[in-house]
């Protein structure tokens, strides 16, 4: 984990790490006591802790984001993740990481988002895929704003005739594949890929048995889409693991036959930090395909 500030409280940092950046109400109360802040201040107070999960070997610019879901009363941390000697387009932005963390861990919506700096245009477009994008509140160190203010004249899902949105899409029927874990199949059924219908998900298994999952997230502007392996690796990073040091035993990518488009980018991302890890690759049939 990155050393963002030597004033970070170790017990708060450890609590965030142990929880993989997913903070329930009980943990929030504990952390508020340690930080001496109230609930309204918690999102901003957590930002340096979120940024400590960043891995930025290219830019050395550490970004943190904290997403909040009022329905579950959970906070979800996110941080930027860069891959050495690979295209800059493969970077996972902090805002993507926080939203991905929330989506993979049962959030119903992103009610608000705290960020260490103003979001780039790429992230504004990524957030515009959210079910409540028009109402999304964003808090920066300089004050509060909304996504609508940051992205006027927007282009979104409905412009492509898509009536679904991230956090508000129908489950997908997946035919069982014996080689795949039930958890991976469950993640496949929750993929958001309305533009290509490539139902794709990834699984990472560590030598100690820990597993991390990722789902494909598409975007109306296409480029801000998040690949399943980026999604899974972001989850790995949010557990405090350093990519280059992670003892990975297995990496799996599943895609939809006839719609596949993720294998090359997945292998490129993996090889940036582990040249010996073999990708296990499967194609499935989907009723959506």
From TrEMBL:
Entry cofactors: Zn(2+)
Active site residues of this protein: 95 (proton donor)
Bound cofactor: record note: Binds 1 zinc ion.
InterPro entries listed in its UniProt record: APOBEC/CMP_deaminase_Zn-bd, CMP_dCMP_dom, Cyd/dCyd_deaminase_Zn-bd, Cyt/Deoxycyt_deaminase, Cytidine_deaminase-like
Biological processes, Gene Ontology terms: nucleobase-containing small molecule metabolic process; pyrimidine-containing compound metabolic process
Keyword field: Hydrolase, Metal-binding, Zinc
Residues engaged in binding substrate: 80-82
Molecular function, one GO term: zinc ion binding
Annotated binding of Zn(2+), by residue: 93, 120, 123
Record-annotated CMP/dCMP-type deaminase domain positions: 38-158, 175-289
Record's GO cellular component terms: cytosol
PANTHER family per the UniProt record, alphabetical: CYTIDINE DEAMINASE (PTHR11644)
Similarity section: Belongs to the cytidine and deoxycytidylate deaminase family.
Subunit structure and binding partners: Homodimer.
Name this polypeptide is given: Cytidine deaminase
Originating species: Pseudoalteromonas rubra
């Amino acid at each position: 984990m990155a050393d963002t500030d030597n004033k970070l409280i170790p017990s708060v940092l450890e609590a965030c790490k142990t929880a993989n950046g997913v903070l329930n109400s009980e943990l929030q109360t504990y952390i508020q006591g340690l930080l001496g802040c109230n609930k309204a201040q918690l999102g901003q107070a957590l930002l340096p802790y979120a940024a400590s999960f960043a891995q930025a070997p290219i830019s050395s610019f550490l970004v943190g984001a904290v997403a909040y879901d009022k329905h579950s009363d959970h906070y979800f941390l996110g941080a930027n993740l860069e891959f050495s000697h690979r295209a800059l387009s493969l970077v996972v932005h902090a805002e993507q990481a926080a939203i991905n963390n929330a989506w993979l861990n049962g959030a119903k919506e992103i009610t608000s988002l705290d960020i260490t700096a103003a979001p780039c245009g790429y992230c504004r477009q990524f957030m515009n895929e959210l079910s409540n994008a028009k109402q999304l509140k964003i808090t920066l160190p300089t004050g509060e704003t909304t996504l609508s203010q940051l992205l006027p004249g927007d282009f979104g899902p409905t412009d492509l005739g898509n009536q679904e949105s991230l956090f508000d899409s129908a489950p997908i029927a997946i035919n069982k594949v014996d080689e795949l874990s039930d958890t991976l199949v469950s993640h496949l059924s929750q993929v958001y890929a309305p533009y290509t219908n490539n139902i794709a998900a990834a699984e990472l298994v560590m030598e100690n048995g820990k597993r991390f999952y990722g789902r494909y997230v598409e975007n109306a502007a296409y480029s801000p889409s998040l690949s399943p392996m980026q999604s899974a690796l972001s989850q790995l990073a949010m557990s405090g693991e350093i990519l280059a040091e992670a003892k990975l035993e297995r990496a799996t990518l599943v895609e939809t036959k006839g719609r596949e488009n993720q294998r090359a980018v997945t292998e490129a991302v993996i090889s940036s930090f582990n040249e010996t890890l073999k990708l296990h690759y499967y194609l499935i049939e989907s009723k959506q395909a």
